[in-house]
Amino acid sequence: MKETRILMGMPISVEIVDARRGGTTEETRRAATIEATFAHFAHIDETFSTYKDTSEISAINAGRLPRKEWSPEMEVVFALSEETKRATGGYFDIKRPDGTYDPSGLVKGWAIWNAAQLIMKKGFSDFYVDAGGDIQAHGVNGEGDPWSVGIRNPWDIRENVQVIRAAHHEGIATSGTYIRGTHIYDPHTGAAADAIVSLTVIGPNIYEADRFATAAFAMGSDAIRFIGSLPGFEGYMIDAQRTATKTAGWDAYRITDAA
Q: Which domain covers residue 28, as residue numbers?
């Protein structure tokens, strides 16, 4: 069972397989779980969207909500953001030059990871969650094989430059300019991060993969070196000159160079 909806300004897809179980009751359970997953993303959007005046983060940025009234989720995200800033040498920073906050570079992966935990708590083990190209897969697909993920050609998104397998629990995140244009900046200089056009990171889970993909993208040409230095992470980078670079262990995940 698969469903896609537009939430958080992007397409979000949830597919639950668990092919060994069938029947009307199981179909109902799957449908209810998918509905709960989308409700989770809707709540995240209402809390953290900087585009909605009614969101909690907008109230914080407007000075309408004092720290003592922040939700536990907001406190967690700010704490995780500060930890990520330290871990990346300041290349991840949710504080904008104008003093407001935008935690979207961390929230998406964190929200996907929490969605996966929700699905597992409902008793399902074969599924994936894809939000704007960032993916948390678990178990196997309907054919009993590992889930596969295509990496788009930045100059022709109808094509994949590589196809990789998603392991049992690892997350896959891609940062790039070919869909949204330039939207990542070097926090140290304020300059647009435009040295590379695509960076895909495989990490222990989608939260880890997503936050470090965002920070590494801001590092420009140093991105692949940084990802390669992280235990349990692999990366594939395409720069503005159309040159691809990968970490030492990347090929262990590669299925094919094109699809």
A: 2-256
Q: What are phi and psi of 135, to 5 degrees?
A: -130, 135
Supply the pTM of this predicted model: 0.92
Residues 6+ apart with CB under 8 A from 85: 92, 93, 94
Token digits of residue 24 = 């009307």
pLDDT in tens, 66-124: 999 999 999 999 999 999 999 999 999 999 989 999 999 999 999 999 999 999 999 99
Amino acid sitting at position 161 = V
Structure tokens of 236?
């594939």
Contact (Cβ atoms closer than 8 angstroms) between residue 174 and residue 162: no
Q: Which two tokens stand for residue 144?
A: 């009993």
- What is the CATH number for 37? 3.10.520.10
Total domain count for the chain? 1
- Which burial class, exposed, middle or buried, applies to 146 when counting CB atoms under 10 A from its CB (0-12, 13-18, 19+)? middle
The fraction of the chain above a pLDDT of 90, given in percent, is: 78
